[in-house]
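In keeping with the milestone schedule agreed at the kick-off meeting, the structural modelling team has produced records for the first pair of proteins. Each record is given below as a sequence line and a structure-token line. The laboratory manager (R.T.) confirmed that both were archived under the project's standard naming scheme.
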Amino acid sequence: MPKLDIQISVEDEGWPDGPALLALGERVLGAAAGFLAKEEGQPFPDMAPELSLVFTNDASIREINAEWRGKDKPTNVLSFPAFPLEPGGMPGPMLGDIVIARETVEREAVDLEKTFEDHLTHLLVHGFLHLFGYDHMETDEAEEMEGLETRILAMLGLSDPYAGQDPIV
């Protein structure tokens, strides 16, 4: 199974403590990396690629979203690949950053009738796939990415978050 070097930053007091978030990140992203390597033939460098997880709040992610995407509103997760990567391409020593907003995750979890941890798990997988070049801007891309998310989440014991929906583009 591929190894990852995960760095975390907790920027909001409402999140669980750092060690709990790191353990969740290691479990979820380790499973996602293993799935990509085994099922998708994703190559991994010999050294464990590094990525950072930033656990923040709506105000902070709103600023980031406005600056980088031109959308002046909070969002649940943003991913910033360190280097452009096509799905199936060899990642470098740094994968990139995943930024997640606590309040949005909490609201969405309630709306979706899921636990906070289950929804956070889904968003970690979603953000991780973006670091590997997967996207959902076009219907065929969305179908591929959502299919991968669903299969990874099933490995983690979670149901299909897209059941009964059209691909989200």
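The second protein of the pair:
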Amino acid sequence: MSGSFHVLLAEDEDLVAMVVAEILEAEGFRVTVTHNGLEAIEADAADPADILLTDMRMPVMGGEALIRMIRQRRPDLPIVVMTGYSEHLPAEEPGRLTVLRKPYAVSALAPTIKALLARRTVPAP
């Protein structure tokens, strides 16, 4: 299922971004790594993602603003929030938005993404 799905990752910690990207690429996902919300919005405009993975606290533009802006353009884009903080978290939306609190088991990442993508039949064009 994951072969052609495009994951957009917004994570400002280089090591975390590298590990997450490696894990997802090993699962067959195509991953675009960005380091803040503004980069993520620009990357999605250039190459639309099938799912967004985002941290909440990032420089330039954090996850809260990123989610709000991406929802204006793409209201049905599945989102996974990965955060170590508990304030200002978006409400979970079954089938649309899931929150993984750091530290989370990296083994949970691919199944979480696959579950959100399962409701989509084909990757974005």
